[in-house]
Specification:
The protein has 446 residues and is α/β, with parallel strands linked by helices. It has eight helices and 23 strands. It has helices at 120-135, 193-201, 236-242, 286-302, 320-326, 337-347, 384-393, 405-417; strands at residues 17-19, 39-46, 52-55, 61-64, 72-81, 84-94, 140-141, 153-161, 164-170, 177-179, 205-215, 218-227, 246-251, 255-259, 262-264, 275-277, 308-312, 330-334, 354-358, 372-376, 397-402, 420-428, 438-445. The strands form four sheets. An eight-stranded mixed β-sheet has the order 1-10-9-8-11-12-13-14. Strands 7-22-23-21-20-17-18-19 form an eight-stranded mixed β-sheet, sandwiched between helices. A hairpin with a 5-residue loop joins strand 3 (52-55) and strand 4. Helix 7 (384-393) runs parallel beside helix 8.
Length: 446
Amino acid sequence: MSRRHHKSKARPSESPRRTGTPTRRPPPAAPSGPTGPPVDLEIVALGGRGDAIARQDNGEVVLLDGGAPGDVVRVQLQGRRSGVARGHIIAVVQAGPHRVTPPCPVADVCGGCTWQHVDPARQRAEKARNAARAVGVEPKQMGAPQAFGWRRRARFHLRTVDGVLLAGFMAEGSDALVSAPLCPVLQPPLDTLPGRVARWVSPWLERGEGLAHLGAEGVVLRVQGKAAAKVPDIGAADAALLGVVGLEIATDSATRQWGLTEVTLAETVDNDPVRVDAGGFSQAGAAANTAIRDAVRAALATLQPLDGARELFAGSGNLTGLLLEAAPTVVTIERNAAATERARGVYGDAGGRLEIRTGDASDPGAPPVGREVWLLDPGRPGAKTTCERIALLRPAAVIYVSCAPDTLRRDLAPLRKAGYCVTESWWVDTFPHTPHLELIVSLTLA
């Protein structure tokens, strides 16, 4: 499983607060600054990186922040960056049919949900368009997204502001803290956890961050940072106050731990129970991960019979069990040693059928033996070198699980050049209210 991170909003002060940030998202940096008088433009689409797309009268594309398709907006052009015109929305002249009022009171400044002002149906339509652009064919959508209360991982900052320790997330385009009593995308009880943490640690923590993960057993929490006073011992009463089943405090002066250190991903309990710690990577939503696993399982079913499988960027084993269902032998490669140890704890050697390696997944190893499928699930930077090696070694089939359409499109190029064709593809709305999605692409040699 890859180790990519997405911002989870958590804003727990008693009322929405913004410290050190403007009330409107700042314009993207551009070398030339504002150019010319403001112009009125219509938003025509949303880009794969979250930008709103408008066109000037001459047809030139302008990328903006904060627009919804159909909006007519007043724009201050901001020069060019990477060869593309950029602009800053001054005002919405006429709201389009897809603009909605965000339920979160700080959605306009928080860096977590940049599309919360766009209705969910249009979000999905834009993601489907961006997914098709990346793959070259139209992928099928897998799974039905839940708009709110879906996120089971939280990472929040703790910072003293005007003598009060607050918990929250970073503002859009800034390192300013944004805090509010509730984050609507987090699952209960994570949605209000940061506020409880801030009040609990305020006597002895000066600044830091909290990491929390909700699993089948409950929430495990890690708080780390700089202590302002002696860190107390912790126990069951503290965990009960915070509503967690595992608690760890790590500062420059002390480390304290109580209860569980890991929890099980709920959707894997009945199969191969994959475990993570408070800061460990998993897909942020259980339903999204179920959809990804269903897509991989469907892809494997079309590739039978198989003589073996190889899994690159294997993480803690989220997809390993699916390969063991489909192939007689499996080799996994993952750089993170802690993740490979968790995978060994789940699978062992699967009766001699599984080899778990700690190593660099950019080197998939020896050529395939017989009809093999190689599955890769890299982080947002993609796997350019790995795909170039796969193109030379030529396994019979490849399944690419990607969270980044732009790097996926780049990485598919050497595979296509080597004769691989996309036979099936799916996309999953893994992060509602953001441009992020997951793509699962199955390729076979022509």
